[in-house]
Structure formats: C-alpha cells, structure tokens
Amino acid sequence: MLLGCIGDDFTGSSDLANTLAKQGMRCVQYTGIPSGLAARDVEAGVVALKTRSVPVDEAVAQSLAALDWLRAQGCTQIFFKYCSTFDSTAEGNIGPVADALADALEARQVIVCPAFPGTGRSVYQGHLFVKDRLLSESGMEHHPLTPMTDPDLRRWLAPQTRHNVGHVAADTVLAGSDAIRAALAAEDQADRRLIVVDAMRD
C-alpha cells in the first residue's frame, strides 16, 4: 500500500475511494480500523471513521490508530479526508486531528485544502466557496452541529490548532510547482505549519 487515507465519515471516505479508483489506483475502503492486514495488491487504503463530531480526544485517538495501521501496511503518504465544507467548530475536530497526525509523522507542514471543484467547492484567497456562494452564505451556516459562519479557513482553523496558519494564494498556485515550493518554504520560515492553499480547478 502506497497511499493511506483517514476519513472522518463514511460518505466522504466513499467519495475519496471512488475518485482514487477512477484514477486507476487499486483502492479499498475499510469501515473502521481493520484487525488484519491489507491485501498485497492494494495501492490505496481509505479508513472510514466516524470522528467528525465526536469528542476531540476520541477523534484524535481513532485517527492515530488508523495512522498506525496504515503505516504498518507500508504507506508512504498519508491523506486526512475531512468534509469539503470543512465541518468543524472552534474546538475541532479538523485542527486537533491534523496536529496529531503531523506530530506522529514528524511533518513540518500540512496542506489544508478542502476544495473539490468538481462538486462546486473551491478555495480562493483562503475563503471556502460552495459554487458561487461563500461558505457562510451557502446554508451551511445553519448546520445543527457545525454551523459554518466564517468562510475564511485561516480564521476558522486558527482556534483549533496549536500552530500558526499560513496561506498560499491562487496566483502562486497558478504559477506552478516551483512557485508553490518557494511559498511553502517562506511559510515554513515564518513558522506556519498548517497552510491553506487556494484551489479553483481540479
């Protein structure tokens, strides 16, 4: 297994697994953390958890357990799948889980990008849009568990994490990989670990 994915709910995990399979990867979705080994021909594994709205400590513990299992299968890259509307509160769970996974992986930076342009989710100037509406004007501001009242992902994420939050703007993304690397290096120098990256097309 090369790519290990940790999803915070079943539906989003299914969407991710379907996308990976359509792109040609041999992908398996697991409901919860498996007790046994993955098949040897699996290239991408998606562990579907139910951690979106559970207590923070429980979400972190389950996500770290999923990480341990995926690493034991040989995964060399880890992807944390959360909702494309960034469903969370000031307490979490996106920030605390991202922090915990980054610590466990000794990752200097974490890319934060809930964009899924194919379904109308895009990030521009650090703000999340649902089609042509800001997240906070999309109906998600009325969500009963995670009312999304601020579309600025930097502001929304800041109280959830122990680390500074940075941003790579659309102009830099469109300039190509070298420009993106330079921007990430600059954010690293500024001690920003979680980096919101604009994305408006697949």
TrEMBL record:
Chain segments annotated as coiled-coil in the UniProt record: none
UniProt-listed InterPro entries: 4-carb_acid_sugar_kinase_N (IPR010737), 4-carb_acid_sugar_kinase_N_sf (IPR037051)
N-terminal signal peptide: none
Four-carbon acid sugar kinase N-terminal domain location: 3-201
The protein's name: Four-carbon acid sugar kinase N-terminal domain-containing protein
Species: marine sediment metagenome
